[in-house]
Design brief:
The complex is a heterodimer. Chain A is 36% helix and 25% strand. Chain A is of the alpha/beta class. Chain A has a domain of 178 residues: Rossmann fold. In chain A, the strands form two sheets. A six-stranded mixed β-sheet of chain A has the order 6-7-8-3-9-10, sandwiched between helices. In chain A, strands 2-1-4-5 form a four-stranded antiparallel β-sheet, covered by helices on one side. In chain A, a hairpin with a 6-residue loop joins strand 4 and strand 5. The two termini of chain A are 32 Å apart. Chain B is mostly helical. Chain B is built from twelve helices and no strands. Classes of the chains: A alpha/beta, B mainly alpha. At the A-B interface, helix 2, helix 3 and helix 6 of A face helix 7 and helix 8 of B.
Chain lengths: 260, 282
């Protein structure tokens, strides 16, 4: 079952004639990890950033086609490209969270970082806040390291810990989809390993889309892989098929390292 | 041929470069020394003359009784009210420029603010004289505070604008991606991340206006008496220094030296506090 359905989606940045994404059709499967791979400039980050409309922070973008998001309660899909009102954007981003390349801890305590999204979602009850923060930190394999310094500034954590904190912060609001934009490219191999394990663990509860430059990472953790090239989706399939039996020549060239 | 040339060092050439290096170093040191010498001269004169006439009773008496109490308090009130007016306006404008303003409109405001920052302070004094002092029928503390606020606003705009521009884009996006609205991201996250820089900038702006004379000269003027009434001429340390230095009596000029000394120390303390905050919070 798909949690998101991208249908004939095109995207154009402001002030540019040519669309950066053309006619993309792609599902994001529920409780699976979908990897978006491709050489720099292929549009994979642009696609990811369309999926919670973070592009809309900057005016003048042009969307075409549909990106449908499953409503878990009704079982119906709605097109997120129709969203215009501020409160609908807030709801969308609570359903579709995002983790960035560089860790982005807020300049506040560890606890307040994780509680930030919860407070925005309207949770004021202290014990409930504490419970949810603890749950999120445990879910992100960070609780053991920080449980005795929740009131300390998050800026004092290591890069890998900061990234797990950002994941905890995103997980705390219980989103349906989490978007990861090269989450480990600024981290050392050990922190990368920890985050990869965490992603595989997290897919029990959320559906994941991840942009990665690291093909080993895509093959290690993802269930589905989409290969993109110059704004087009070249091939989408189960990860093992993409890596073992690619149908397209371009995909094969890329994963065997002939270009990119 | 080429490899031969490379292997053949030119000692004279190397020597020449070293010499030029030494000459440049000597010139830079000399220039720095000349600059510092004048600063040292000013400060020594100020300290000798100022300390010579300094007495604790200056803090207890008003100018009418030969002290400086009303002037120091008055100067702080003028600068304080200027800060109360200038900081919110400057910060809000800076936030607008960096977070909301786009295109030509914002860049015009930014340029105007930069021009304002270098406007001669006497011109601002004259402006406030024309639009406030004349219509209200006389000099007043309010006019002085407003003139100082006008001095302060562009500095605060510039600091806020610059400090916010240093906050990484991803931090704003991370806030938005958690469902926060834009104003909440700015208030909760962006300003917090830029807090130290903005605070330092504001403190430096405050240090600058507290030592200003020209904007006050014909707006607040000064007063020999203690006053909290902002609607009349208001005691100002800097304007009184100007007045006292022009008096024929030796005692008045001594008092001007003492006042200058106190003012310098105050400005120095504020500046050092700014530096201290930056160093500790970074």
């Amino acid at each position: 079952m798909s949690v998101m359905k991208i249908k004939k989606f095109s995207f154009t940045y402001p002030g540019v004639d040519h669309p950066s994404l053309r006619n993309i059709t792609l599902p994001i499967e529920k409780n699976k990890i979908t990897a978006l791979i491709g050489p720099s400039g292929c549009g994979k980050s642009t696609l990811l950033r369309s999926m919670n409309r973070i592009h809309d922070l900057y005016p003048g973008n042009k969307y075409d086609g549909k990106i449908e998001l499953l409503n878990e309660e009704t079982g119906k899909y709605s097109n997120i490209l129709d969203i215009k009102k501020e409160n609908e954007f807030i709801k969308l981003r609570q359903q579709v969270g995002m983790i960035f390349q560089k860790p982005t801890p807020f300049p506040m305590s560890i606890f307040d970082n994780v509680a930030y999204g919860l407070k925005i979602a309207g949770i004021k009850n202290k014990s409930e806040l504490h419970g949810r923060v603890e749950e999120a930190l445990k879910g992100s394999a960070l609780w053991k390291e920080v449980h005795d310094r929740l009131d300390k500034s998050a800026m004092g954590l290591s890069g890998g810990q900061q990234q797990r904190l950002c994941i905890a912060r995103a997980v705390a609001v219980k989103p349906e989809v989490l978007l990861f934009d090269e989450p480990t490219s600024a981290l050392d191999p050990i922190s990368t390993g920890a985050i990869e394990e965490l992603l595989v663990e997290l897919k029990k509860d959320v559906s994941i889309a991840i942009v990665t430059h690291n093909m080993q990472q895509a093959s290690r953790i993802s269930d589905y892989t989409a290969f993109m090239y110059l704004g087009d989706l070249i091939e989408y399939d189960k990860t093992e098929n993409i890596f073992l039996n690619p149908k397209e020549q371009k995909t094969e060239d890329y994963i065997t390292g002939r270009f990119g | 041929m080429i490899s031969n040339k490379l292997q053949d060092p030119k000692p004279l050439n190397g020597f020449g470069r070293l010499l030029i290096n030494k000459i440049f170093l000597a010139l830079s040191v000399l220039s720095a020394l000349i600059g510092l010498a004048f600063l040292g001269w000013i400060l020594t004169t100020l300290f000798i003359k100022g300390l010579g006439s300094f007495h604790l009773s200056l803090f207890l008496n008003d100018l009418i009784d030969g002290g400086l109490r009303n002037l120091i308090i008055g100067q702080f009130i003028l600068a304080g009210i200027a800060a109360i007016i200038g900081i919110p306006i400057g910060m809000t404008a800076g936030i607008y420029l960096q977070e909301y303003g786009q295109g030509r409109y914002a860049s015009i405001i930014r340029d105007l603010s930069d021009i304002m920052m270098s406007a001669p302070s006497i011109v601002i004094g004259a402006f406030v004289y024309a639009v406030i002092v004349v219509p209200t029928g006389g000099t007043s503390g309010w006019a002085g505070a407003i003139a100082l606020a006008i001095m302060m606003i562009p500095v605060v705009i510039n600091t806020t604008d610059n400090m916010l521009s240093l906050v990484p884009r991803e931090l704003r996006e991370a806030g938005i991606a958690l469902g926060a609205s834009k104003y909440k991201v700015i208030l909760d996250i962006v300003i917090k991340a830029a807090k130290v820089g903005i605070m330092t900038g504001i403190l430096l702006a405050f240090a600058r206006i507290i030592g200003e004379t020209a904007p006050l000269l014909f707006t607040s003027e000064t007063s020999n008496y203690f006053s909290l009434n902002m609607s009349e001429s208001f005691p100002s340390l800097t304007v009184s220094i100007y007045d006292l230095a022009n008096e024929p009596e030796e005692s008045s000029r001594d008092l001007a030296w003492a006042a200058s000394f106190i003012l310098t120390v105050l400005v120095l303390i504020i500046n050092l506090t700014g530096k201290f905050i930056t160093r500790n919070k970074k």
